[in-house]
Amino acid sequence: MKLIKLNAINSTNTFLKDLSKNTILENFTIVVTENQTNGRGQQESSWVSEPNKNLTFSVYLCDLNLDISNKKYLNYAVSLSIFSVLKNKNIPNLAIKWPNDIVSGNKKLCGILIENSIQKNSIQNSIIGIGLNVNQERFSETLKNVTSLKNLLHKDVELDNLLKDICFELQNQLLILSEKKYQMLEDNYLKVLYQIHKAMMFKNTENELFLGIIRGISETGNIIIELENETKREFGIKEISFA
Fold this sequence. Notes:
Layout: E1 2-9, H1 12-22, E2 29-36, E3 39-40, E4 46-47, E5 55-61, E6 66-67, H2 71-87, E7 94-97, E8 101-104, E9 107-119, E10 122-132, H3 149-153, H4 159-178, H5 182-191, E11 199-204, E12 209-217, E13 223-227, E14 232-235, E15 240-242
Parallel strand pairs: 1-2
Antiparallel strand pairs: 2-5, 3-4, 5-10, 6-10, 7-8, 8-9, 9-10, 11-12, 11-15, 12-13, 13-14
Helix pairs in contact: 2-4, 2-5
GO molecular function, one term: biotin--[biotin carboxyl-carrier protein] ligase activity
Protein name: Biotin--[acetyl-CoA-carboxylase] ligase
Domain BPL/LPL catalytic: 1-178
């Protein structure tokens, strides 16, 4: 494990991606910054973080040799590592919101962005970006349903120790992945999946609302939703949102 600390950077994922093009990086190289000025989230969304208050970091993984058909298990391993660490801190109503947001109730605590390098139908390298709201207390009014560890625990959380805990647990989960214990990852993920088996509202790409029940995750990582007529349908990340 190699740790690179930066005072400020536009995006830790972008920094690692550029660094990997010109340098041979060792597995589990970590870049963490006190101030990320242009953080990125899923679907080209931005990740806004107050300087010196939160954890914004990326992890470089190499030689994964993970078949592209099994990429959802990498997502499971990363999500579960964050979930496990926060669970040990007694965060209330903790869950993983598909595909990989960590939430307390309906409020977002952590976002994850995984960018893979694929060769011959196999994921060789991956850059995992993690943004975790830790000690920030106030958020922009444009951000809905967002919270932090401090808002939930009513005390500051030490950032360096939290980073170490997450990286340690990430290594544990990646070991399970490397041992191809896919069913274990699947079971553990579904066990803590937000609103699974509960009726709730969703929104499609036409901004139409519909009622459905999350029934699981498909082989390709899409969410499986049972509709009102009792049929089941798969949706990709760009095809559906939680209402």
